[in-house]
């Protein structure tokens, strides 16, 4: 017990905590908890309702699933911050690096899940005759690939010990300064998936405008416009997340 107390004492120290930190921590925890509950409900509906067993809903379910995991990591981090603020201490626990790593993993997969939704709608509008791209097998392959890449790209941070305890924010993350690691992380988690989604959106806008100028069956044009509207909503969502979460 004395040894454990000594280790804890070495890893922690008292800090001055502003009074408004704790209400912000509680508000964050409440909002994240609500998001986890809603994502879980949507995911279960998609999982058990047979009318939702379609490829577009499968992609939405993928976003809900990673949203649940992302929310759990944020909740864990929020509870850790709240406890430290209540005790008025700065303390780097054993799971600090792991939380930082999983934060980058889940954020990357979350943004890629929105990109996959945009890509699917891009394919069914521009390449409607290429049925292989619209199959469940191909879309599952893309989902699995995004998860594998999401777990692998930041794994080096665990071994290089670049994820450190940020005393000011009571979170574990890369040290925010101009470096290869920060640029690498920002591209993998934010810039590439977000700007790729926006690029797909503008490509679809251009294509749908060209369709309206040509002799195109009404049903085909209406479907393309409907899918474009869905991609537009996805772009708005990822843009908001990019602004709120970066870096």
UniProtKB/TrEMBL annotation:
Its main location: membrane. Keywords: Cell membrane, G-protein coupled receptor, Membrane, Receptor, Transducer, Transmembrane, Transmembrane helix. The chain crosses the membrane at residues 20-47, 59-83, 114-133, 140-160, 180-204. It comes from Adineta steineri. It comes from the Eukaryota. GO terms for molecular function: G protein-coupled receptor activity. The keyword Cell membrane applies. It is a multi-pass membrane protein. Residues 38-247 form the G-protein coupled receptors family 1 profile domain. This is G-protein coupled receptors family 1 profile domain-containing protein.
């Amino acid at each position: 017990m004395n040894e454990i107390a000594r280790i804890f004492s070495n890893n922690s120290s008292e800090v001055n905590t502003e009074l408004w930190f704790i209400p912000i921590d509680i508000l964050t925890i409440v909002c994240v908890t609500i998001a986890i509950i809603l994502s879980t409900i949507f995911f279960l509906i998609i999982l058990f309702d047979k009318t939702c067993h379609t490829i577009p809903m499968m992609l939405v379910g993928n976003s809900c699933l990673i949203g649940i995991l992302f929310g759990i990591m944020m909740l864990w981090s929020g509870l850790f911050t709240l406890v430290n603020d209540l005790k008025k201490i700065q303390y780097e626990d054993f799971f600090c690096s792991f939380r930082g790593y999983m934060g980058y993993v889940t954020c990357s997969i979350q943004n890629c899940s929105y990109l996959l939704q945009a890509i699917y709608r891009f394919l069914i509008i521009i390449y409607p005759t290429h049925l292989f791209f619209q199959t469940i097998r191909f879309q599952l392959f893309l989902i699995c690939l995004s998860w594998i890449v999401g777990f692998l790209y930041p794994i080096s941070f665990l071994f290089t010990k670049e994820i450190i305890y940020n005393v000011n924010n009571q979170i574990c993350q890369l040290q925010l300064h101009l470096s290869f690691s920060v640029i690498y992380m920002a591209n993998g988690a934010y810039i590439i998936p977000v700007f790729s989604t926006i690029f797909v959106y503008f490509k679809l806008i251009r294509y749908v405008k060209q369709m309206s100028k040509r002799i195109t069956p009404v049903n085909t044009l209406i479907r393309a416009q409907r899918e474009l509207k869905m991609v537009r909503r996805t772009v708005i969502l990822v843009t908001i997340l990019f602004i709120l979460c970066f870096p």
